[in-house]
Amino acid sequence: MAVKNETWRGTDVIVTERLKLVPWEDTEADAKEIYRMASNPNVGPHAGWKPHESLEESRTILREMFLPFGGGHDTFSIRLKDTGRVIGSIGTYEDTAREGVKSLEIGYWLDEAEWHKGYMTEACRAIQDYAFLKYDLAIMAIRTSNVNFRSQGVIRNCGFTYEGTIRKAYRIYTGEDRDSRFYSITREEWEAR
Ligand SMILES: CC(C)(COP(=O)(O)OP(=O)(O)OC[C@H]1O[C@@H](n2cnc3c(N)ncnc32)[C@H](O)[C@@H]1OP(=O)(O)O)[C@@H](O)C(=O)NCCC(=O)NCCS
Is the pLDDT of residue 101 over 80? Predict the structure, then answer.
């Protein structure tokens, strides 16, 4: 296994070569970090979500989407191991494309200042290790839009196989309909790498 696990207030912390993945906390500091990164208009729209417009909005998303932790809905802040600086978010969620199969889907985003340094590849591979081991999964899934080439790069780096595209799969906040590219990695493929 490429990652080392520690515990943080009863939940898991994942440590990689350069990163620490720490469960988000219900603090003003974490809400401010999310707002700092997610209010940037270059981040959310690539993933289909609207840039955060206020600290209050970031606080609500932190509480409603990031804090419920466990059972496969596990969202981590991504921190630089050396400095502790928060640089993004990654998590696992219900795989809504599968039924009755032990599967989770991965979602992520990174502070624009930290793109192109291989950080999300490192974080995503760690989350694969964590979730396959913790939840005894048969498969893991990820999807991204046809126009998100950076995310497609991360997905390629993490050994996912392209499954197909659902055209006009979802409408984003601007009213634009986007195609969704689906990928997965089986337990056997993950074990073999
Ligand atoms: C997508 C995102 C997480 C990538 O993070 P990152 O840390 O920069 O990614 P990495 O550096 O680990 O890897 C990106 C890969 O894509 C490649 N890449 C980067 N930009 C690219 C582009 N415009 N076209 C094609 N490939 C590109 C990189 O070369 C790299 O591959 P490599 O390691 O073989 O060189 C980041 O850009 C982001 O947060 N974007 C906005 C939010 C988002 O899109 N979230 C994902 C929703 S599905």
Answer: yes
Residue 161 within any structural domain of the chain = no
CATH of residue 40: 3.40.630.30
- In-domain check, residue 166: no
- Residue 25 · residue 34 · CB < 8 Å: no
The finding on whether 170 has its CB within 6 A of some atom of ligand 1 is no
Would you say residue 170 lies in a domain? no
Nearest to 191 by CA among 132, 144, 147, 143: 132
Q: Is 118 in the pocket of ligand 1 (CB under 6 A)?
A: yes
Is residue 122 in a domain?
yes
Looking at residue 3, its pLDDT comes to 59
**Count of domains forming the chain:** 1
Going from the Cα of 18 to the center of ligand 1, the distance in angstroms, rounded, reads 17
Domain of residue 10 covers: 4-137
Residue 1 has pLDDT above 60, yes or no: no
Nearest to 82 by CA among 8, 15, 3, 13: 15
Report the C-alpha gap between 51 and 90 in whole angstroms: 17
pLDDT by residue (tens digit) across 50-66? 999 999 999 999 999 99
Q: What is the pLDDT of residues 59-94, one digit of tens each?
A: 999 999 999 888 899 999 999 999 999 999 999 999
Ligand 1 atom closest to the Cα of residue 143 is: 48
